[in-house]
């Protein structure tokens, strides 16, 4: 079964940048990024379809970019202009092409990677 491993999180200043990676072992892989802030539900922030169509939550549109390296079974989330509100644990998973719901994720959740945006 696919296992998902997120990495690349850390502490950055507001306005800073960070690139997250999600490596999938086994067959299949992730196509979406989610995040969960303390006391908040997990929410989708970005998704990329098999045709390369990208979807972003309004809160991150224009600042985050999702990409895929199919050969390495890896997806990335390039984050620019980070805000304190972006502080959360970031997860990857697989969802259908039109889904925005964390409850539609089809793979076991990984540990996630912590992103903290603070001066």
Task: Sum this structure up briefly.
The chain is mostly beta strands and 119 residues long.
Write a structural description.
The strands form two sheets. Strands 2-10-9-4-5-6 form a six-stranded mixed beta sheet, with no helix packed on it. It has a four-stranded antiparallel beta sheet with strand order 1-3-8-7, with no helix packed on it. It has no helices and ten strands. A hairpin with a 6-residue loop joins strand 4 and strand 5. It is 0% helix and 45% strand. The chain has 119 residues and is mostly beta strands.
Question: Strand order within the widest sheet?
Answer: 2-10-9-4-5-6
**What is the helix content?**
under 10%
Q: What Rg is obtained from the alpha carbons, in whole angstroms? A: 13 Å
**Chain-averaged pLDDT:** 95
Structural class: mainly beta
Topology, number of strands: 10
β-strand percent reads 35-45%
Element order: H for helix, E for strand: EEEEEEEEEE
Largest sheet: 6 strands, mixed
Number of helices: 0
For the record, give the distance between the C-alpha atoms at the N and C termini, rounded to a whole number.
40 Å
Low-confidence stretches: none
Instruction: Label the overall shape.
Output: globular
């Amino acid at each position: 079964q696919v296992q998902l491993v997120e990495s690349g999180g850390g502490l950055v200043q507001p306005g800073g940048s960070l690139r997250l990676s999600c490596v999938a072992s086994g067959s299949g892989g992730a196509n979406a990024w989610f995040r969960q802030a303390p006391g908040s539900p997990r929410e989708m922030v970005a998704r990329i379809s098999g045709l390369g169509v990208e979807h972003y939550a309004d809160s991150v549109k224009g600042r985050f970019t999702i990409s895929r390296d199919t050969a390495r079974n890896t997806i990335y989330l390039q984050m620019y202009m980070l805000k304190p509100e972006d502080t959360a644990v970031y997860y990857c998973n697989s969802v259908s092409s039109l889904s925005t719901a964390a409850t539609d994720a089809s793979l076991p959740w990984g540990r996630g990677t912590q992103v903290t945006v603070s001066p």
